[in-house]
């Protein structure tokens, strides 16, 4: 995640796993800013194709756009983009065609970034990509790029705790227009950043943020260096504030019952000079159904621990071993509970990679075309016939219609749910009773006990009378119900 001196901050949970962002100056910008009417580059004027800036199933969906608590001294309180945790040097792709307008390589203190100008059907859009070490590995200033073209590599430059891509969308000019929530923006363009993630971190923003004075500092009456001082705060004084609030470089806080403003570089998310023993830290855990029963491959020799933190080791598994998620994780998804043989323990997700199976072979099943299903539990609609990238969650009790395609083993069925078509586990679909098929006799015809003229006549169906097909078929004969009687008759006399 990227930090701006005039912005706000993210949740402490997300800080534990992913980046803390670049400290770069710029004017305030939020989605509430009026949209500019900048002239578009006519050479790019067209409705654009949009793509995911990272390859599906290779990244973790972390800190989202919006207010947050300050995670580092000098950080902001509003996250302007979306964080996607990925492997170092993973390829970054242009989200749409456009021209490269800004480039800066990163350092340990400053985040590297690439900014691309787009003309989306006459509307000026800019996308920004952060935290690469070098911004010049794949593009140069003024270069025209295509959607899906590699423009750089994932890095860890600037105040960042792990390699990731911080992705922003701006309506109008970068730092001159409005910072758009990028996930919803791309979803409207047909790209599901959240659904394509290998792991989704819980979206959590506290109602209040607890900080500490980073040094002896003045509590001001207004957000200004010239304002009167209400009191002088000592280092490590406890400060309480709301997430997302920052004005003129000052954070509104309450300390010792007095409310005022503290310069942001004097605000720390943790107490200075104190480190709590690991064993005393209580880390909140959650039920994480998305990992239940899912296989993961270890990317290095990995210690399985008794608690979701560095501590007692219950077992060590080698690199490339397979473990299975049991449906629990820490709130920030830094740790996941897994099973290895007879051992169930906690593992760092940093060293786990989800095993994505190849989709099963598909067949066409005529009887499933138009078949109505009832969803038996909250169920993911998936992009392929395999546990992997999801399209959306389907609610229990809702209806879906079969397209006529299924896997050879029948474990997956392709369905249409609302406006979306995808794959669902057949085990969680219940077929609705088919609508009765009614036929009319074209002439007087005998209804018989069996499918031939050798069988006894049960009744005679008069011309124009209606019968209901009950599903049986033998050659040209069909099984029907006529009034209270059932039997067989030749289909050539029905229409």
Question: Overview of this structure, please?
Answer:
The structure is a single chain. The protein is mainly β and 495 residues long. Helix content is 3%, strand content 42%. The chain has two helices and 42 strands. The strands form twelve sheets. Strands 1, 4, 6, 7, 8, 9, 11, 12 and 13 form a nine-stranded mixed sheet that branches. Strand 11 (164-171) and strand 12 form a beta hairpin.
Give the CA-CA distance, first to last residue.
66 Å
Q: What's the alpha carbon Rg, rounded to whole Å? A: 30 Å
Biggest sheet record: 9 strands, mixed
In total, the number of strands is 42
- Tally of structural domains: 5
The name CATH uses for the topology of the largest domain is Glucose Permease (Domain IIA)
Please name the defining characteristics of this protein.
single chain, 495 residues, mainly beta, Glucose Permease (Domain IIA), SH3 type barrels, 9-stranded mixed β-sheet, 6-stranded antiparallel β-sheet, 2 helices, 3% helix, disordered N terminus, M23ase_b-sheet_dom, signal, SH3-like_bac-type, SH3 domain-containing protein
Secondary structure topology:
Layout: H1 12-17, E1 59-61, E2 66-67, E3 78-79, E4 82-86, E5 91-93, E6 98-104, E7 112-120, E8 123-132, E9 144-145, E10 150-153, E11 164-171, E12 178-180, H2 182-188, E13 199-200, E14 209-213, E15 217-220, E16 229-233, E17 238-241, E18 250-255, E19 258-263, E20 267-268, E21 285-287, E22 295-298, E23 302-305, E24 313-317, E25 322-330, E26 335-340, E27 343-348, E28 352-354, E29 362-364, E30 372-375, E31 379-382, E32 390-394, E33 399-407, E34 412-417, E35 420-425, E36 429-431, E37 437-440, E38 445-448, E39 457-461, E40 466-474, E41 477-482, E42 485-490
Parallel strand pairs: 1-13
Antiparallel strand pairs: 1-4, 2-3, 4-11, 5-10, 6-7, 6-9, 7-8, 8-11, 11-12, 14-17, 14-20, 15-16, 18-19, 21-25, 22-25, 22-28, 23-24, 25-26, 26-27, 29-33, 30-33, 30-36, 31-32, 33-34, 34-35, 37-40, 38-39, 40-41, 41-42
Domain SH3b: 434-495
Protein name: SH3 domain-containing protein
Pfam families: Peptidase_M23, SH3_3
């Amino acid at each position: 995640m990227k930090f701006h001196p005039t912005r706000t901050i993210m949740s402490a949970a997300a800080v534990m796993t992913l980046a803390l962002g670049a400290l770069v100056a710029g004017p305030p910008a939020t989605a509430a800013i009026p949209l500019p009417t900048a002239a578009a580059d006519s050479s790019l004027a067209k409705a654009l194709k949009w793509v995911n800036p990272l390859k599906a199933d290779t990244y973790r969906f972390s800190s989202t756009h919006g207010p947050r608590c300050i995670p580092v001294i000098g950080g902001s309180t509003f996250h302007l983009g979306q964080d996607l945790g990925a492997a170092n040097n993973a390829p970054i792709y242009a989200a749409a065609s456009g021209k490269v307008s800004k480039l800066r390589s990163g350092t340990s203190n400053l985040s590297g970034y690439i900014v691309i100008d787009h003309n989306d059907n006459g509307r000026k859009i800019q996308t920004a990509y952060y935290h690469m070490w070098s911004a010049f590995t794949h593009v140069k200033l003024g270069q025209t790029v295509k959607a899906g073209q590699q423009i750089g590599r994932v890095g860890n430059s600037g105040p960042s705790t792990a390699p990731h891509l911080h992705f922003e969308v701006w309506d109008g000019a970068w730092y001159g227009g409005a910072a758009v929530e990028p996930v919803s923006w791309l979803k409207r363009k047909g790209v599901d950043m959240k659904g394509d993630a290998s792991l989704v971190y819980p979206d959590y923003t506290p109602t209040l943020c607890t900080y500490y004075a980073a040094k002896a500092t003045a509590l001001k009456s207004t957000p200004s260096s010239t304002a009167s001082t209400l009191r002088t705060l000592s280092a490590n004084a406890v400060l309480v504030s709301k997430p997302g609030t920052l004005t003129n470089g000052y954070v509104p806080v309450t300390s010792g019952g007095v409310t005022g403003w503290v310069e942001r570089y004097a605000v720390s998310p943790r107490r200075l000079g104190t480190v709590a023993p690991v064993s005393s830290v209580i880390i909140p855990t959650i039920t994480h159904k998305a990992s239940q029963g899912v296989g993961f491959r270890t990317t290095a020799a990995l210690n399985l621990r008794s608690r979701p933190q560095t501590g007692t080791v219950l077992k060590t598994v080698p690199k490339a071993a397979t473990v299975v998620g049991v449906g629990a994780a820490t709130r920030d998804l830094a740790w996941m509970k897994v099973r290895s043989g007879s051992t169930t323990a906690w593992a760092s997700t940093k060293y786990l990679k989800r095993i994505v199976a190849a989709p099963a072979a598909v067949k066409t099943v005529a009887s499933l075309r138009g078949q109505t299903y009832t969803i038996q539990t909250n169920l993911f609609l998936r992009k392929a016939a395999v546990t992997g990238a999801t399209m959306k969650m389907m609610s229990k009790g809702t209806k879906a219609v079969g397209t006529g395609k299924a896997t050879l083993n029948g474990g997956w069925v392709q369905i249409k749910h609302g406006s979306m078509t995808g794959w669902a586990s057949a085990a969680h679909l219940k077929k609705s009773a088919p609508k009765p098929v009614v036929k009319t006799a074209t002439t007087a015809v005998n209804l018989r006990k069996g499918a031939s003229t050798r069988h006894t006549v049960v009744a005679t169906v008069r011309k124009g009378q209606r019968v209901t097909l009950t599903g049986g078929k033998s050659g040209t004969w069909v099984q029907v119900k006529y009034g209270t009687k059932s039997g067989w008759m030749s289909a050539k006399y029905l229409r």
